């Protein structure tokens, strides 16, 4: 083999190859590298003979010789070592072509590492190739940066590695910054993803309320506290003199009276000046826009979350198709890490298989279908009666509380003062377990039963809330009548004062009456009253929830744990046993409370902050309770990957919470002596006042035209038509997808039939064949004579496992056989070969048993 000798100049530099000539690579490159390796080994031996103490160093140097396996088992040796001056000289002796070839190999290895997942290889081969590629890149990527003119490449390689490491560390940092991720994973490993979905939903609600609190605190509460008038300067920020003696009592503060009532927590504290402070901040406008913007932001976030969940998909597969396949391959919850939960999940899967087998066997039977329908109708009737009774009870209690409001507080007991909150919390505590007991009659799947339970508890909470609102707005109407009479009496007294003062002193410059703010006659301020009722509802609901967990779960678990050894029966297996985590009740409690926050935030700006504290404590308290007091469900089922059912309930609650606020802004007149909208006919007049005084005239005209009913009605009609069109298009796409899936299934069945030599499964073709008289149009099967078999020729190939069935499959014969419905007119053909290993040696001359000569070796 001819090799090209190296030519060096006067300074010892290698000449560059001429243009058009390929750079040395492949065999020539390996020859040169081997020559350098041999030279370095010889030099190391001579140095070892001269200096025996350096033998250890030479052995270390030989170990540093880097070996990389190339293609077809060939080995490439690159003795790069930073500690040896001879190897550094060898590195400098590499030509540009060799560097380019090595660089190309490094890039190929990098590409292999990036695309290794897509290779159709076995896992063992993937691991071997990955290890070799990583070693090659790790060893020779840095070597390319040594020498003259290659520092830039080494710098790029180093920065690329650091960038990759930074991205990986940043992703780990973002994962570590997710709040309560470890707690939720721990709950998920013990109780499955269905229980963990509640805590994920709770964390999402906490983030939403944190943003809402930022809006309310930063744009409403903080400007009023920093730039508004201080406490005691005006009547709306001062406790009346008649209430000052008991304003700091615990019972009064617990009912949010006294100093709490006249604080920044409620609507009546805020002043009605157009601008406040040095920044000329428009507080009334900000209050209205933030109150409405909370609903807009929440709507945007909920819809965006629903769209993201819809893209992730549901549970996969239709429930009616491939039932056992879906159960076999998708039933297990891989996030379970607790042995007890795994045992429960195993038993649940086994039970579900048994139930599915029984269901498949009884699908054709109609014995108990009428009984099941009767029981389901009976259960729904009983639940409707419970819902109607709870609504009537709340309406009765609210009406009774209005009578108590006209009486003296000293004559009322604690229960009579808090009767509304107590009854609503008690209904929310008693009705969900009652619904769950009644739902046993329906015998639904746990996932379907959970949705029915959620819907019923949602109807209970929503009915109770709207019944409470209807009764509360009756009280608001009565307070508005009282405010009118107080306002008229106050205006008459002021007119009398001005008239008497001007007539007595004979002047028109009448000073305002010198009255202390605590002695000013004031109205009932119905907005603050509504806000207090919402805050009391939230606080009472938190108290009942925490006491329920403490008594119903913790005390129950303590009794079962310590009294089980000395009791008459097994407390763990029988009554009362350990409690299970109530997913439906807790989820609906969150949704219900969030609806009250949305409605009450307009009347009590501090309510959002209280809800943030409630959600923060609930995460720690309920995580402790579920890990210490509860046991996994007997039928552990995997939660849906799409939480759109929760989000759908939340979206409905958001819409229903918006209605009372919009009704208040557009219809009811605000109080005349409290709140940022006092002195206005309607609350939305603040926006019109700002447009008229602070914006150009053409913008006011635009708003006037935009609010014209003649434009609003066509716009709404256009939106309805657009929604109808998009819905129709979506249904068309869904139907097209179903048709395509059906066609793909039919094609797959036909392909299986052709492979298995069976009848057609196409129902349409079967019906057409059955319509033919005596199937006269079906062509008879073509008889084919078997080809003659030569003595020395190889036997025909037979499908493994089918040799005993007389099926002779040759290499170039199609597997699709004619329709076997025709009559059989000939005997089956001869077998191609005896059954056995199709890959083993075939009988032939000299190989048969007891005949022929022995085989040659």
If you had to describe this structure to a student in words, what would you say it looks like?
The radius of gyration is 42 Å and the shape is globular. The chain has a two-stranded antiparallel sheet. Strands 3-4 form a two-stranded parallel sheet. A hairpin with a 5-residue loop joins strand 1 and strand 2. Helix 8 packs parallel to helix 18 and helix 18 runs parallel beside helix 20. It is 60% helix and 1% strand. The chain starts with 26 loop residues before the first helix and ends in an 86-residue tail after the last helix. The chain is mainly alpha-helical. The N terminus and C terminus are likely disordered.
Q: Topology, please?
A:
Layout: H1 27-50, H2 55-63, E1 66-69, E2 75-78, H3 85-92, H4 96-114, H5 123-140, H6 151-177, H7 181-191, H8 193-227, H9 250-254, H10 283-312, H11 323-330, H12 339-361, H13 369-405, H14 414-417, H15 419-438, H16 446-505, H17 526-563, E3 579-580, H18 583-600, H19 607-628, E4 630-631, H20 644-666, H21 685-694, H22 697-706, H23 709-756, H24 763-771
Parallel strand pairs: 3-4
Antiparallel strand pairs: 1-2
Query: Which overall shape is indicated by the principal axes computed on the Cα atoms?
Result: globular
CA-to-CA gap between the ends?
39 Å
Q: What is the rounded Rg?
A: 42 Å
Mean pLDDT: 74
List the total number of helices.
Answer: 24
Question: Which percent range describes the beta-strand content?
Answer: under 5%
Order of strands, main sheet, comes to 1-2
* N-to-C order of helices and strands: HHEEHHHHHHHHHHHHHHHEHHEHHHHH
Largest sheet: 2 strands, antiparallel
Structural class: mainly alpha
The number of strands is: 4
Q: Give the fraction of residues assigned to helices.
A: 55-70%
């Amino acid at each position: 083999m001819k090799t090209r000798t190296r030519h060096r100049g006067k300074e010892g530099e290698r000449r560059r190859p001429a243009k058009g000539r390929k750079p040395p690579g492949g065999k020539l490159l390996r020859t040169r590298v081997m020559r350098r390796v041999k030279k370095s080994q010889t030099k190391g031996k001579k140095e070892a003979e001269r200096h025996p103490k350096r033998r250890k160093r030479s052995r270390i140097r030989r170990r540093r010789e880097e070996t990389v396996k190339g293609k077809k088992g060939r080995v490439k040796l690159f003795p790069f070592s930073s500690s040896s001056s001879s190897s550094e000289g060898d590195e400098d002796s590499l030509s540009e072509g060799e560097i380019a070839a090595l660089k190309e190999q490094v890039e190929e290895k990098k590409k292999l590492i990036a695309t290794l997942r897509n290779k159709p290889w076995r896992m063992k081969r993937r691991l071997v190739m990955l290890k070799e590629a990583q070693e090659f890149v790790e060893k020779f990527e840095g070597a390319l940066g040594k020498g003259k003119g290659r520092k830039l490449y080494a710098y790029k390689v180093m920065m690329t590695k650091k960038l990759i490491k930074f991205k990986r560390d940043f992703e780990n940092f973002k994962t570590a910054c997710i709040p309560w991720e470890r707690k939720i994973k721990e709950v998920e490993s013990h109780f499955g993803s269905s229980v963990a979905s509640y805590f994920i939903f709770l964390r999402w609600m906490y983030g939403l309320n944190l943003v809402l609190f930022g809006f309310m605190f930063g744009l409403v509460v903080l400007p009023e506290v920093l730039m508004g008038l201080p406490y005691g300067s005006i009547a709306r920020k001062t406790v009346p003199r008649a209430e000052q003696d008991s304003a700091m009592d615990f019972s009064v503060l617990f009912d949010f009276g006294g100093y709490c009532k006249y604080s920044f927590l409620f609507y009546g504290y805020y002043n009605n000046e157009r601008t406040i402070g040095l920044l000329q901040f428009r507080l009334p406008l900000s209050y209205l826009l933030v109150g409405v913007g909370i609903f807009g932001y929440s709507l945007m976030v909920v819809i965006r979350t629903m769209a993201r969940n819809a893209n992730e998909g549901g549970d996969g597969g239709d429930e009616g198709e491939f039932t056992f396949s879906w159960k076999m391959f998708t039933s297990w919850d891989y996030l379970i890490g607790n042995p007890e939960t795994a045992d429960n999940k195993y038993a649940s899967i086994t039970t579900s298989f048994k139930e599915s087998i029984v269901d498949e066997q009884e699908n054709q039977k109609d014995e108990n279908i009428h009984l099941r329908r009767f029981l389901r109708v009976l259960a729904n009737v009983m639940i409707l009666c419970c819902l109607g009774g709870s609504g009537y009870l709340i309406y009765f209690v609210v009406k009774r509380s209005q009578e108590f409001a006209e009486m003296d507080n000293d004559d009322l007991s604690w229960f009579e003062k808090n009767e509304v909150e107590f009854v609503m919390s008690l209904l929310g505590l008693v009705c969900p377990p009652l619904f769950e007991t009644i739902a046993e009659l329906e015998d639904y799947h746990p996932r379907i039963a959970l949705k029915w339970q959620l819907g019923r508890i949602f109807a209970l909470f929503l009915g109770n809330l709207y019944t409470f609102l209807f009764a509360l707005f009756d009280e608001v109407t009565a307070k508005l009548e009282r405010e009118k009479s107080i306002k008229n009496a106050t205006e008459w007294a002021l007119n009398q004062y001005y008239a008497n003062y001007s007539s007595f002193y004979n002047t028109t410059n009448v000073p305002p009456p010198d009255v202390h703010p605590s002695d000013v006659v004031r109205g009932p301020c119905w907005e603050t009253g509504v806000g207090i009722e919402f805050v009391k509802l939230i606080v009472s609901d938190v108290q009942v929830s925490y006491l329920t967990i403490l008594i119903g779960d913790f005390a129950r678990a303590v009794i079962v744990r310590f009294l089980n050894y000395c009791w008459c029966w097994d407390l763990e297996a029988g009554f009362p046993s350990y409690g299970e985590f109530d997913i439906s009740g807790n989820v609906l409690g969150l949704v219900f409370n969030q609806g009250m926050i949305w409605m009450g935030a307009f009347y009590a700006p501090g309510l959002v902050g209280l809800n943030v504290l409630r959600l923060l404590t609930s995460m720690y308290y309920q995580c402790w309770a579920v890990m210490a007091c509860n046991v996994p469900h007997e039928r552990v089922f995997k939660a849906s990957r799409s939480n759109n059912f929760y989000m759908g309930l939340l979206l409905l609650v958001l819409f229903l919470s918006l209605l009372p606020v919009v009704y208040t802004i557009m219809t009811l007149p605000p109080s005349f002596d409290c709140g940022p909208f006092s002195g206005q006919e309607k609350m939305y007049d603040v926006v019109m006042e700002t447009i008229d005084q602070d914006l150009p005239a053409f913008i006011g005209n635009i708003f006037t035209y935009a609010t014209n009913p003649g434009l609003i009605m066509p716009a709404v009609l256009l939106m309805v038509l657009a929604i109808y069109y998009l819905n129709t298009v979506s249904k068309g796409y869904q139907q097209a997808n179903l048709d395509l899936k059906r066609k793909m299934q039919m094609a797959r069945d036909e392909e299986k039939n052709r492979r298995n030599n069976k009848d057609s499964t196409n129902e349409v073709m079967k019906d057409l064949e059955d319509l033919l008289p005596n199937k006269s149009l079906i062509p008879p099967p073509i008889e084919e004579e078997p080809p003659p078999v030569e003595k020395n020729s190889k036997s025909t190939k037979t499908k493994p496992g089918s040799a005993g069935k007389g099926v002779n499959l040759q290499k170039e014969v199609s597997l699709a056989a004619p329709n076997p419905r025709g009559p059989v007119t000939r005997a089956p053909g001869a077998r191609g070969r005896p059954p056995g290993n199709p890959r083993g040696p075939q009988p032939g001359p000299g190989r048969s048993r007891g005949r022929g000569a022995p085989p040659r070796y």
